[in-house]
TrEMBL record:
The keyword Magnesium does not apply. InterPro entries: Peptidase_C15-like, Peptidase_C15-like_sf. This is Peptidase C15. Gene3D superfamilies: Peptidase C15, pyroglutamyl peptidase I-like. Keywords: Hydrolase, Protease, Thiol protease. It comes from the Bacteria. The lineage of its organism: Bacteria, Bacillati, Cyanobacteriota, Cyanophyceae, Spirulinales. GO terms for molecular function: cysteine-type peptidase activity. SUPFAM superfamilies: Pyrrolidone carboxyl peptidase (pyroglutamate aminopeptidase) (SSF53182). Pfam families: Peptidase_C15 (PF01470).
Length: 172
C-alpha cells in the first residue's frame, strides 16, 4: 500500500499579503507526480485555530493518512523551518519524527523550536493532540515556508520535495 501524506496550508491574514507562501508552494507541487507516495491536499485553511483544527482533524479521520505535513507562512524567515514542538499554554507536544535525519544535507531547511505562537502553532498542537489522544499511527510535522521569490523558489521547492520523500520512506 502506498504511503499517503496529507498537506495543509493557510489563507492570508494581513491586507498586504497577496498570497500565502505555504499555499503557493503546495499549489506548485500539486500537479507533480511522486512515484513512492500519494498526496492529499487541504489548502487555504482559515486563519483561525478552532476552525482550521476542526477541518484538519475531520480530514484526518476521513482519509487516515500515514503522515501529515501542516504548512504555514513565515514572512521573516529565509529557509524552510521544521517545527519540533507545539505549545498551548504551559503544555507542549513534540513531533515523533527524527528531525535531524529528516533535514540532513538539505540546503534551505532548518529545525526550529518556536512555532510562532499563532494559528500555525495552534493547528500543530491540536493535530498532535488528536493523534496522541486517539493513538493514531500517524506522523505529523509543521513546516514554515518563507516568502517565495524567483531567487529562492527552486531551492525551497527542492528541499520540500526531499522532505516529502524522506517522510514517505518512514515505516508506518
Amino acid at each position: 500500500m502506498q504511503t499517503q501524506i496529507l498537506l495543509t496550508s493557510f489563507q492570508t491574514w494581513l491586507p498586504h499579503q497577496h498570497s500565502n507562501s505555504s499555499d503557493d508552494l503546495l499549489g506548485a507541487i500539486e500537479s507533480q507526480l511522486f512515484p513512492n507516495f500519494s498526496l492529499r491536499f487541504l489548502r487555504q485553511l482559515p486563519v483561525d485555530i478552532e476552525k482550521s483544527s476542526r477541518r484538519a482533524i475531520a480530514q484526518i479521520d476521513r482519509t487516515h493518512p500515514n503522515a501529515i505535513l501542516c504548512c504555514g507562512m513565515a514572512e521573516t524567515r529565509n529557509t524552510l523551518t521544521v517545527e519540533s514542538t507545539a505549545w498551548r499554554g504551559n503544555k507542549s507536544l513534540q513531533t515523533t519524527l527524527s528531525l535531524d535525519s529528516i533535514v540532513a544535507n538539505l540546503s534551505a531547511t532548518e529545525i526550529s523550536h518556536d512555532a510562532g505562537k499563532f494559528v500555525c502553532e495552534g493547528l500543530y498542537y491540536e493535530v498532535l493532540n488528536h493523534i496522541q489522544h486517539k493513538q493514531l499511527p500517524i506522523s505529523c510535522l509543521f513546516i514554515h515556508v518563507p516568502l517565495l521569490t524567483p531567487h529562492n523558489f527552486s531551492m525551497i521547492s527542492a528541499d520540500f520535495c526531499q522532505l516529502l520523500d524522506r517522510v514517505a520512506k518512514l515505516r508506518f
